[in-house]
Amino acid sequence: MDTAAPARTERPRARLVTPTRALRGAEIAAGATLAILFFQEFLQFSLFDPNLWLAYGPIFLGGLGGTVRFILLVIPISVILGFFLGWARISRHRVLVWPVTMFVDFFRGMPPLVLVIFAFLFGDDLIPQAIKDRLLAGIPLRVVSVTAAALAIAFHSAAYQAEIFRAGFQSVPMGQLEAAQALGMKPWQAMRWVVLPQTFRLSLPPLGNELAVVIKDTSLLAAVAGGEIVSRSQNFAGTLSISGYPVEWLFAIWTAVAISYFAATFTVTRLLLVLERRFHTPGLEAVSI
């Protein structure tokens, strides 16, 4: 006699847009709008002055594009490097642990502004001549130096992310690895199916905080005139008095810069929050008090 197979229950997929999230987004937009209107009334400036955007608009868009390019360069490099550094820190091979520990301690102990300046001044000298001749031929020296400064920010963030991923790796109980091996899994299979999913899920909340910090750290490239939104806005603000523009535009300029960084950090952290909820595992929640 045939027996009916039990029905397979699939876990419902979390929706990206829910009424609650839409309501929260509307509340944030309304609060930001009211804050802007309040500061405009209090400081007597208009963020929507057409004359301001005729003069500042091209500079703002060019700087915003530069900031986005730096963010797209820094974040992937820092996350990938931080992941492998965190993996190496829990290695049994001391030949990997010692250099990685020195890297993490050095970059965590240095102010990012100092790293940016040193990388801009001496980054070109650290590149082997063979790479310059083959890969960097024809690229202006300033572009190479600014890119080295951006990479310094990526390395600085990677040192912090290495500790985030290391904590994620070490939070997986050893008994789970032993159980996976008892089931016949090879070490790489246990890492792929047991350790990495849990490490990824546990690392997402602190990783979101670190990525928000590294997005704002790209503003440090203004110290070397990196061409991002802060340096270009600073240059434009310095010419207001000699160009005959209203001094009140200063408030509008830096308000626009602040909104740009807020939008970038809010977008990235919300995307990570969506991933965190999508990979949420019932029964493994943190204790809420």
Question: Would you give an account of this structure?
Answer:
Mean pLDDT is 83; it is low at 1-9. The protein is mainly α. It is built from 11 helices and no strands. The chain starts with 18 loop residues before the first helix and ends in an 11-residue tail after the last helix. The protein has a single domain (39-278), classed as MetI-like fold (Orthogonal Bundle), CATH 1.10.3720.10. Helix 2 runs antiparallel to helix 9 (229-238).
Provide the helix percentage.
over 70%
The radius of gyration computed from the alpha-carbon positions, rounded to a whole number of angstroms, is 24 Å
Order of helices and strands: HHHHHHHHHHH
What general outline do the C-alpha atoms trace?
Answer: flat
Q: Oligomerization state of this entry? A: single chain
Structural class: mainly alpha
- Report the total helices: 11
Uncertain runs with pLDDT below 50, 5 residues or more? 1-9
What is the average of the pLDDT values?
83
